[in-house]
Design brief:
There is one protein chain. Helix content is 41%, strand content 17%. Strands 1-2-4-3-5-6-7-8 form an 8-stranded mixed sheet, with helices on both faces. The chain is globular and about 50 Å long.
């Protein structure tokens, strides 16, 4: 079964958001809102959307401001976490989605987490892949803001191809170097479609240095939460375990032989974990998932 079957432009307060759907939204079918990572788009979820659709779920992929099919805000504040989340709340209401499972990877996971904290009535469950609650120490956040600002300023004169080379060389993505060339080429092509203004605005508005630290608010999350990380991504494998200790109804799965982008590196294992979780939730079961083989 194919993944996305339709692409829409939905205007929210003057900004056109790109949205992809597997099927028409139907209250009789459970819906999953899917949020991508930095420099990606909803196309990154294509295979996952196909896997979930084949099991009876409707998937809705949303491109963040400055990414994919979504426009670039005229006002820098529209990139920020509160403004982006406010836009998402309006957008899903426009689409007729009252209650959904929210899935996010990396940056998208942080936004989904914020939705779980600030818009709990909209969130049936959270599926957070390689997600952190932000940076606890103010001095470390200030340092991260400075690094993000320096990178944002450098993308303009150096260009998108330079940025993509730099981004792909980061140690956090080292485990992806063994992936098939066609997988890496498709990911690179998507990153190359980004714009300078879009990436720079997102770094300045949605970067971890700019984001409020959510660690002391995790206890307020009342929906079931699945936290997924790759075993080769030692930092985030530790982070998700720490987060789970503070979230009342949390489950952790660390996928063997996967790095930061689990759904790209080990898609079958990721899909098994997510589908197991979703089927149990839809059936009203609280049983825990087993680690994938």
């Amino acid at each position: 079964m194919s993944g996305w079957t339709d692409a829409l432009a939905v205007e929210v307060a003057g900004l056109s958001y790109g949205v992809r759907l597997t099927d028409e939204v139907d209250a009789a079918r459970p819906t999953i809102v899917m949020l991508h990572g930095f420099s990606g788009s909803s196309l990154d979820w294509t295979d996952t959307a196909a896997a979930l659709r084949s099991e009876g779920f409707t998937c809705v992929g949303i491109d963040f401001p400055g990414h994919g099919l979504t426009g670039i805000p005229a006002e820098p504040r529209r990139f920020t976490m509160p403004e982006t989340s406010r836009d998402l709340a309006t957008l899903v209401t426009t689409l007729g989605i009252a209650h959904a499972h929210w899935m996010g990877y990396s940056m998208g996971g942080r936004v989904a987490l914020y939705m779980g904290i600030t818009e709990p009535v909209r969130v049936a469950s959270l599926i957070l892949e390689s997600t952190s609650p932000g940076i606890a120490e103010e001095s470390a956040r200030k340092e991260r803001r400075a690094r993000d600002e320096a990178l944002a300023a450098e993308i303009g004169p150096r260009g998108i191809p330079w940025f993509v080379n730099y981004w792909e060389s980061l140690p956090i993505f080292a485990s992806q170097h063994r992936l098939p060339e066609e997988v890496l080429s498709a990911q690179r092509a998507g990153r190359l479609r980004n714009s300078v203004a879009g990436l720079a605005g997102s770094l300045r508005g949605l970067g971890q240095g700019e984001q409020e630290y959510f660690g002391d608010r995790l206890g307020a999350i009342r929906c079931p939460t699945l936290l997924v990380a790759g075993a080769l991504d030692l930092k985030y494998a530790a982070v998700v375990r720490q987060m789970a200790a503070s979230i009342p109804d949390a489950e952790v799965v660390v996928v063997p032989d996967a790095g930061h982008n689990v759904h790209l590196e080990k898609p079958e294992a990721f899909h098994r974990v997510v589908l197991d979780r979703l089927h149990r939730l839809e059936a009203g079961s609280g049983a825990k998932a087993s680690l994938p083989a």
